[in-house]
Amino acid sequence: MFMKNIVTDILLEPGLENAHITLHDIDAARLTTSQIVAQRIAETTATHPTFTATLDRRTALQDADIVITMLQVGGYEPATRIDFDIPKKYGLRQTIGDTLGLGGIMRGLRTVPVLLHIAEDMAACCPDALLLQYVNPMAINGLALARLAPQLRHVGLCHSVQGTAMDLARDLGEDPADIDYDCAGINHVAFYTRFEKRHANGRMEDLYPRLKKLAETRDYGRGWENCANHVRYDMLKRLGYFVTESSEHFAEYTPYFIKANRPDLIEQFEIPLDEYPRRCLSQMAEWEAQAEALTSGGALTCEKSVEYAARIIAALVLDKQDKIHANVANNGLIDNLPENACVEVPCLVDAKGVTPQQIGALPPHLAALMQTNINVQQLTVEALVTGKREHVYHAAMLDPHTAAELTLDEIWSVVDELLEAHGDAIPELH
After folding, report:
1. Catalytic residue, candidates 20, 48, 154, 159
2. For residues 240 and 302, what is the distance between their CA atoms, to the nearest angstrom?
3. Host domain of residue 381
4. Do residue 90 and residue 13 come from a single domain?
5. How far apart are CA 430 and CA 425, in angstroms?
6. Residue 318: its pLDDT value, please?
7. How many Cα atoms occupy the beta-carbon half-sphere of 11 within 13 Å?
8. Which residue intervals of 225-329 are DSSP H helices?
9. Is 216 in contact with 268 (CB distance < 8 Å)?
10. Cβ-contact 178, 152 below 8 angstroms
11. How far apart are CA 192 and CA 178, in angstroms?
12. pLDDT tops 80 at residue 295
């Protein structure tokens, strides 16, 4: 999905039509399919890139200017199934499980080592390249890379800020091109501190009163992947600001919505439990069907996505100044979040690089909510840095959703089961 979208975006970006793109995978069949899809994108867009494909990562990275990662360590089978099935035995239900919670912790533990190997290869093959990192858990990955690969130039990218802005414009019946906003926080828990419409005469209209009216009446559309949007609109009523990531994600970042003894909440907020496994199966089937259709000459639709990668490349290579939102080390960007946190902030991009913008202090209650997630991210990274198993227990113990559902003994036990089930996919911890 990401490969198709980003290759399409690059080739549709003026000035990048003749780009050289190298595709890399560890699976030969999947790599062949990706190469066929990429070539069909070029034909459909009437562009003239050059493609190479290789199973050797260092060959792929040699002399690269930009490196884009989109990977899932362990795949749906067995890793995602393990992350969902074992907590479910303890009565702990998840929706997505790739960012926070037990699923996010385990995914971080098995993903960061792979990203560090990529960083080592980049240091040898393309030390000046910029890594555009699309892999979850975004904040854990970004924080770990900042600590363990300080020489690496990297930013974490997500579509939640710009995607949600488009969703809100749709809910309000407005043209997304007329919307202007300020947004900052941490990945998946960033908030629009300003959300306005720019009128033809230049007047700016605060759209929050209209959004809050929608929250009261429930007169809004569905969110990402057609899931209900009730969680986020309810949090708007409680916090006064709208959060960027989807309701199915946000339901498991907090202790309020998914409770084993409150099935009425699941119904009231239409929370899709086990959504990520369902989504994985759907996307795998879609990819296989698309690959079969394309290899037999089927039609391909190519439209620009909301992803930032192509815009960043154009800004860097062609000096087209742009503004994006990216995930970077805090380093004083947000005053009331820790220095050793990975934050999502607006960034200016041009030929000089990606320059994060200082935010100052966020509203205190928003920063406090983010801190509950940052605790888990920091402790997961601490486990990776020190090799100490105890920090995995502590990360799970401080996770808002896990702590609301399980006892301390259950938390220790479920962590042990998860680590054992994942085996050598996770570094040995003592």
Report:
1. 159
2. 38
3. 371-423
4. yes
5. 15
6. 94
7. 24
8. 230-239, 247-250, 263-268, 275-295, 309-318
9. no
10. no
11. 16
12. no
Domain identity same for 128 and 231: no
Q: How is 364-405 classified by DSSP, letter by letter?
A: HHHHHHHHHHHHHHHHHHHHHHH--THHHHHHHHH-HHHHHH
Over residues 74-103, the mean pLDDT reads 97
Q: What is the pLDDT of residues 3-43, one digit of tens each?
A: 999 999 999 999 999 999 999 999 999 999 899 999 999 99
**Residues 9, 75 within the same domain:** yes
422 is catalytic: no
The answer on 381 and 341 residing in a single domain is no
Q: Is 32 helix (H, G, I), strand (E, B) or coil?
A: helix
pLDDT tens digits along 391-428: 999 999 999 999 999 999 999 999 999 999 999 999 99
Single-letter amino acid code for the residue at 151: Q
The answer to whether residue 47 sits within a structural domain is: yes
| Mean pLDDT within 381-388 | 98
Residue 257 lies in a domain: yes
Q: Once rounded to an integer, what is the mean pLDDT over residues 378-402?
A: 98
- The pLDDT tens digits for 308-331 are 999 999 999 999 999 999 999 999
Query: Could you tell me if 121 and 39 lie in one domain?
Result: yes
> Which residue do the tokens 């309701």 mark?
247
Which two three-digit tokens encode residue 178? 């007329």
Contact 52/388 with Cβ under 8 angstroms? no
Q: Which H helix or E strand runs over 301?
A: none
Q: How confident is the model at residue 210 (pLDDT cuts 50, 70, 90)?
A: very high
Alpha carbon distance 337, 143 (integer Å): 13
Please state, as a whole number, how many other Cβ atoms lie within 10 Å of the Cβ of residue 297: 8
How many domains, in total, are found in the chain?
Answer: 3
Q: What φ, ψ does residue 197 adopt, rounded to 5°?
A: -110, 135
How many angstroms separate the Cα of 59 from the Cα of each of 24, 63, 112, 137, 213?
9, 9, 21, 27, 55
**Amino acid symbol at 87:** P
Quick check: is 285 in a domain? no
Confirm whether 365 is domain-assigned.
no
In this prediction, residue 288 carries a pLDDT of: 84
Collect all residues with Cβ–Cβ distance below 8 Å to 170 and sequence separation of at least 6. Answer: 176, 221
Give the model's pLDDT for residue 286: 86
> Can you give the pLDDT at residue 292?
80
Same domain flag for 109 and 230: no
